[in-house]
Amino acid sequence: MPLYLEDIDNYAWNKLEAGAAAADSGFHFITLGSIDEHGHPQARTLVLRRVDRMKCVLEFHTDARSPKWLALSAHPKATALGYCNETRIQLRLCGTVELHAQGSECAELAWEKLSDNTRKTYAGPAPGSDVVSNKYHGCNTDGSGKVNFGVIVLHINLLDWCLLARDNNQRALLHYSAAGKLKNCKWVNP
Ligand SMILES: Cc1cc2nc3c(=O)[nH]c(=O)nc-3n(C[C@H](O)[C@H](O)[C@H](O)COP(=O)(O)O)c2cc1C
User: Fold this and answer.
1) Of the candidates 129, 55, 128, which has an alpha carbon nearest to the alpha carbon of residue 98?
2) Tell me, what's the pLDDT at 2?
3) Which domain holds residue 37?
4) Residue from 27, 29, 44 to probe ligand 1 pocket by mutation (most atoms less than 8 Å from CB)
5) Ligand 1 site: residues with CB under 6 angstroms?
6) A GO molecular function for this record (predicted)?
7) Which residue of 75, 129, 146, 163 lies most exposed, with the fewest beta carbons within 10 A?
8) Which of helix, strand or coil describes residue 188?
9) Which atom of ligand 1 is closest in space to residue 49's alpha carbon?
10) Which residues lie closer than 8 Å to 101 by C-beta, 6 or more apart?
11) Whose CA is nearest to atom 10 of ligand 1?
């Protein structure tokens, strides 16, 4: 557990890397918040797929037909929220997304690493569309979902670290440059 402000940057990114690497890790499932086309805040759980701590980037996979993809295209500001029950640490990560659709180098690289089973999840009907027939459930309808696959890359400019401890709650704000360099950090009241 970090006790010094200068340790928090390293600690938080270690935890995020562990989250991307292991399904039982505290930050494997992340809540991604964004603004929809009506200006309404939306949130959903996503698997944290990759972390680039040098660039302060989080990567998620999704279906490019999904409402979040369309919403993020119009409003690219987003917030990722994670909470680790074991350490009682919350990470709120604010930034701007880049969307990488089929045909981009980023989406191609990510698609190559997916299992056949995961690939099939992109081949069914569009997320949020009405269920018209049970026969489509879990089926690969056109052989490949590659055309629907997309990568959300979230560039973080603010990391809000919060530890809930019985007698010593702590919170720190860390700001990053567009290149992912730590610009400043400070303690704030929780
Ligand atoms: C445990 C869990 C993990 C999920 N992981 C993903 C994911 O990695 N990518 C994704 O697009 N949706 C994932 N979902 C589904 C989303 O939470 C959401 O329901 C779906 O993407 C539609 O979101 P939207 O309507 O905001 O576009 C996951 C759901 C759960 C419960």
Assistant:
1) 55
2) 62
3) 5-126+135-188
4) 44
5) 29, 42, 44-47, 60-63, 66-68, 127-128
6) FMN binding
7) 129
8) strand
9) 8
10) 64, 107, 150
11) 62
Backbone angles phi, psi at 147, to 5 degrees: -65, -25
Nearest CA to ligand 1 atom 29: 45
CATH of the domain at 32: 2.30.110.10
Q: Rounded to 5 degrees, what are φ and ψ at 29?
A: -105, 125
Model pLDDT for residues 31-50, shown as the tens digit of each residue: 999 999 999 999 999 999 99
Q: Is the pLDDT of residue 187 over 80?
A: yes
Q: How many domains does the chain have?
A: 1
Cα(86) to ligand 1 centroid in Å equals 23
Secondary structure E strands in the chain: 29-35, 41-47, 50-52, 57-63, 77-84, 89-100, 149-163, 170-176, 182-188
First-last CA distance in the chain: 17
Cα-Cα-Cα-Cα dihedral of 100, 101, 102, 106, to 10°? 10
Ligand 1 center–CA 57 separation, angstroms: 19
